[in-house]
Design a protein that fits this description.
Elements (H helix, E strand, L loop, with lengths): L1 H26 L13 H25 L3 H11 L4 H6 L2 H13 L16 E3 L2 E3 L3 E3 L10 H6 L4 E7 L12 E4 L4 E4 L8 H21 L5 H5 L8 E6 L8 H12 L5 E5 L14 H16 L11 E5 L5 H13 L4 E4 L21 E4 L3 H14 L6 E4 L9 H12 L4 E4 L9 H17 L5 H4 L6
Parallel strand pairs: 3-4, 3-13, 4-7, 7-8, 8-9, 9-10, 10-12, 12-13
Antiparallel strand pairs: 1-2, 5-6, 6-11
Length: 462
């Protein structure tokens, strides 16, 4: 590519030189042949400088063209470090919005290198190229699914999506805690609504189907690889409107409208920023809700693959009795999975010493790691490892000891599926961290003697 660009620049330059020379010759055709114009000294310097620049472009293009694709991808991801200070200067929500727009416009780097084979896994009959996903809350309106999956995430979860568009809570509503590697947010399900999201996902789904049908006779294994939106897996996280009288109707509406585009669905009953939402985690309330949502999903017409798996996202601020109730409901109703966990309303050390900690809302980031991980371990034991669990909370750029953090999740606490990497809003351009996490995770698995992700899942709880 670089060689072609350099060649084009050189041809354009030579074309301009030929035109200017021709014009100059026609202007002087009537003058005496002996009166040759002198070339100014400054003009000679300009030509030398131009020639040297073109030479450097050609040489640079030739050099880049000889670099293998893996190295070039590495350069692109490392280059994202350059823009990190710029994002840090911006308001947190502005930085978040710009990051989503960049991924939507295709300005985010794309990972062309294959994932380490040891990171591959299959869950719910779907193949994940790696277990590192992007949590709901980043791409709330499914604007950048293709770009985010292209960065190398094994799966991306959009939402939370509400039936009716709503602006969420007043701004400012996202607050950085830089030293603690965390944020507090009280966004309140700001969403463009299911109609807007359905249009975007429908377009993605149609594009994916065209690509699949145009490929030359794929094998059955190849047909199963990836999901409905591209090479990675797409999750859709469903929420309820703040002013809705009945939560069940909101979730059922989301199921009917968006489930056809999802590789898995999530009922979010754990955001602390929607009044009354967490009450749906009670045993009776959760059982009634899950039953009705499952019926709504199953009554739709599905092909050979069947309906998308249904998961529930729970809070980290739960008592032992609450966890037992949720586990009982999940096992009894054959729930397809649980996501553990959402943001916390607690302010553990050292967050409580930060003046920003007085802001209301959910805390996420590094301080959430121990809390969510303990809940994850407890839920694995309560469900006896029968239900896939997605660990979410505390995996951030401040935890680039991610190899050790993720090993803890896999070896000691993790259910049977994946890890959901949380992207901190104060530094959304850290694309290179994703590649570091993947590489370090593969090294950790090999170091500990595991041949696959499946072997590591829940190893210390068995």
């Amino acid at each position: 590519m670089a060689t072609r660009v350099a060649g084009k620049l050189f041809r354009d330059f030579m074309r301009q030189r030929v035109i200017s020379t021709s014009i100059g010759a026609s202007r002087h055709c009537s003058s005496a042949a002996t009166s040759a114009p002198k070339i100014p000294h400054s003009s000679k310097k300009g030509r030398l400088l131009t020639g040297a620049t073109i030479g450097l472009i050609i040489a640079g293009g030739a050099s880049v063209s000889t670099v293998d694709e893996a190295t070039f991808c590495g350069w692109l991801f490392s280059a994202t470090k350059i823009v990190n200070p710029f994002f840090a200067l911006l308001d947190a929500e502005v930085a978040h919005t710009l990051a989503v727009s960049a991924a939507a416009c295709g300005w985010a780097p794309r990972e062309k290198r294959p994932d380490p084979p040891i990171l591959g896994l299959e869950v719910w009959g779907r193949k994940f190229s790696n277990p590192i996903g992007l949590a709901a809350g980043f791409d709330k309106n499914a604007e950048a699914v293709e770009g985010l999956l292209g960065m190398g995430f094994g799966f991306v979860e959009v939402g939370s999506v509400t039936p009716v568009p709503q602006e969420g809570n007043p701004k400012p509503r996202i607050f950085r805690l830089r030293q603690e590697g965390a944020i507090i947010n009280r966004c309140g399900f700001n969403s463009e609504g299911i109609v807007a999201v359905a249009k975007r996902l429908g377009s993605q789904h149609g594009k994916r189907k065209l690509e699949t049908s145009s490929s030359s006779s794929p094998s059955s294994d190849e047909a199963k690889h990836g999901g409905k939106a591209g090479p990675g897996i797409l999750g859709v996280n469903l929420g309820k409107n703040k002013k809705s009288e009945g939560a069940t109707a909101d979730y059922v509406q989301g199921i009917h409208t968006l489930s056809q585009y999802a590789d898995y669905l999530v009922i979010n009953v754990s955001s602390p920023n929607t009044p009354g939402l967490r009450m749906l985690q009670g045993r009776k309330q959760l059982k009634d809700l899950v039953k009705k949502v499952q019926v709504a999903r199953d009554e739709m017409q599905w092909g050979e693959e069947g309906p998308p798996p249904l998961l529930v996202k729970i809070a980290p601020d739960l008592s032992k009795e609450d966890l037992e109730d949720i586990a009982a409901v999940a096992v009894a109703l054959h729930l397809d999975g649980l996501i553990i966990s959402n943001t916390t309303i607690s302010r553990p050390d050292p967050v409580n010493k930060n003046s920003v900690s007085v802001e209301s809302g959910g805390l996420s980031g590094k301080p959430l790691f121990n809390l969510s991980t303990n809940i994850l371990k407890e839920m694995y034991i309560l469900t006896r490892g029968k239900i896939p669990l997605i660990g979410c909370g505390g995996i951030s750029r401040k935890c680039v000891v991610s190899c050790d953090d993720i090993s803890v999740l896999l070896n000691q606490l993790f259910g049977s599926v994946t890890i959901l990497g949380h992207v901190i809003y104060h530094n959304p351009a850290n694309a290179y961290v994703l590649i570091l996490v993947q590489a370090e995770l593969a090294e950790c698995l090999e170091r500990d003697g595991f041949k696959s992700i499946h072997e590591a899942v829940g190893a210390d709880c068995r």
